[in-house]
Amino acid sequence: MGRDVSPKIDPSRVREHETFELDGVDISGHWNRMFEQRVIFDYDVAQLDRVTDLDGGESMGWCYQCSQCIGVCPVDHVGDYGPRKIFRKLQVGMDFFTSDDLWLCTTCANCLRVCPKEVDMLQIMPAARKEAVLEGAVPAELQDVFEKTARYGNPLGKNPKRRIAWTKGLEVDVPLVSELGRKVDVLWWVSDYPSYHPRGMEASRSLARVLTKLGIDFAILGAEERHDGDSMLRAGEQGLFEMLADQNIEALNSYEFDVLLTTDPHAYNAFVHEYPERGGNYNVEHYARFLADRIGDLNLSEDVLSTVTFHDPCYLGRHNGEYDAPRDLIEALPGANFVEMWRNKQNGYCCGGGGGGMWLDGLAAEHQSMRLSEKRVLEAVETGADTLCVVCPYEVSRFEDAVKSTNNDGALVVRDISELLAEAMGLSTA
Amino acid sequence: MPSDRVVVIGAGPAGLEAARLAAELGSPVTLVEKMGVAGGMPVHSDYAALTHHFRSASDAMGEMVGAVTSNELIEMRVGTEVTSVEGELGDFAVTLTSDGAEESISAGAIILATGFKHFDPGRETQQYQYYELPDVITIAEAEKMLKDENFVTPSTGKPPERVAFIQCVGSRDRQIGNEYCSKVCCGISSKQAIEIREMVPDARVFIFYIDMRMYGYWENEIYWPAQEQHKVNYVKGIITEILPKNGRLVVRGEDTTMGRPMEVPMDMVILAVGMEPSAGTTAMSGILNLPTNKYGFVETAHDILDTVTTTVPGIFATGAATGPADLDDSISSAGAAAAKAVALLRSVAVPV
Fold first, then answer.
1. Would residue A69 count as lying in a domain?
2. A18 within some domain
3. Residues A200, A78 within the same domain
4. ipTM over cut 0.90
5. Does any CB of chain B come closer than 8 Å to the CB of residue A44?
6. Distance CA A267, CA A190 (A)
7. Is a pLDDT exceeding 60 seen at residue B331?
8. For an interface test with A, which of B235, B239, B246, B249 has the most A Cβ atoms less than 10 Å from its Cβ?
9. Banded pLDDT at A19 (limits 50, 70, 90)
10. What's the rounded Cα separation, in Å, for the pair A291 and A311?
11. Is there a domain that residue A141 lies in?
């Protein structure tokens, strides 16, 4: 047996355009194949300057390569990508604004948590993506979502009138605040996936039952509610965010309520950090905190015979510091056994849905060995849990898909905390 | 004859400070300097701004020299060498030679402050072609250009567009024999990089390093501002060799955090040369019978509790004569040497 001397090509270094024409000659496919240059022939730091010159991009130039970000970057655990690597690529001349690297960050905030130099990807990414949006250099799948959101007010492209479809046939009353004609205690910001996605709708129905059982005076906006815009802002569509925020603030400011209750941590984040400067000041609560503060009134009497693990949403945990409320609720479930995943709370692993990642699965798949949601589901399975509890509407669908794709159907179910609570309260969860 | 005089050899920062303090403590001092002017390396090597704090070297050294010359207890002897020393603690006979004339003075204690010299990169690190390529210079030469406010590529006389620093030249090298870290070069290179960026704003500055050693406050006072405000580019990976190509200098090595070889053109390359014992340190350690370490620096007690006492009673060493030292180190150890020398003379109750 001789030594195999056939050339070994690292696919990641192959550059090939599917269709390409040069001086009128068609050189599509392998005819234009190039291999990434091995030797660095120049440091074109002008590319780094283009990022650090951006309002919000300054800290990209502060990296001193300690590499702590790589240890916690959820994306680098499934593909070759990370903040300190972006800095170096910029120093050797990468055009960030046309690079796929621009879109792989989920703005999960774990790098900023550990960065000694406070290189702030939460500022850098939206600032740089905003430039790409202005240039029209946005991945098609994300551009499609921008357009749907602009047109329909939700990223799923659903008819706004169908926002209340989930309330039909429900045995409890979910009033529209516009029809009540009075102040309500709690205005529930349902959000898009809980309004339109089949599994999200189930969670919404459970939460409606729980709120009703608690005797909460609540109402929803229905068709007047639009996407909160937070993820659009992180994905660089600042104009779209501003339009949505202003429309939402106008709607909200026409009603009287004490508490703005959000299902979605991303919406919560926008209401707390972005809406005030645009004139939207509300007493915002995420439903996990709202319910945790009323644990004594929930009358949790039915056993939930499950081993439950919990996934921290980045925008509830790292972005807004809420780690206890969901855990307090799970611990209060009779009969349930709570187990933590290896990476939890401040170090929770991202589901991949943030920062526009929800709508960039195609691009991510080109660069990653598995989805972040799949990585997380495998970690959940490893705990021995049979139930993965979530409190973010991006996650039910992401994790249910991941359960199937990792062949864990039957081993793990994904349930919203409101579904678990409804079960423990003896309420219907259908 | 027994004496309470302290003879300080070398009028650089350490010697000036040791002389000033010994006199302030009440001892008569003779400060001997081989060169015609006091001030040591910052003056003779035309340093621009000092690391850290960017204070003008001329100003700072002028202040130190002024404090010495205005003190009546201190006699300054420039253009003078110590050519022999006899005797012992409390009763040394020190021979001074100036313009061929010899003179013997009595001293109770001696403080050696003969400092360092810059490593000569043409001598050992031949890959950098320091002797052959005019645009490869050292941080000492860069200091002079910065002091003259005329920072240009030597071969063209024009401001450079791209400048590379190479760290650890002549330090941390078993082949060369200097295994130690010279301690100041990372900070000085970063300081110079800031000055270059201010003087030649269009110049791109790169620092190639093994690991940046920015002790204590140098990190936040020099390294971080260099990168964050002055956009100096730090690249981890030392340059293996410099080759001229198309009128420029191509620096070759590995960009380690990219994991790729690199061959990048530069207009100027500045070698961050380290410290070696000065000729004076070598000569005086022989004359004073002081043991040196394998690198030729004077061995002090080399203890965390005593940085200045040598094996010869009554003889102390301070500053870079004892090993790589920054200015803070030199000034601090000079104070310790002066205090210990004066205290020792008093404890042996030398009759005057």
1. yes
2. no
3. no
4. no
5. no
6. 9
7. yes
8. B235
9. confident
10. 17
11. no
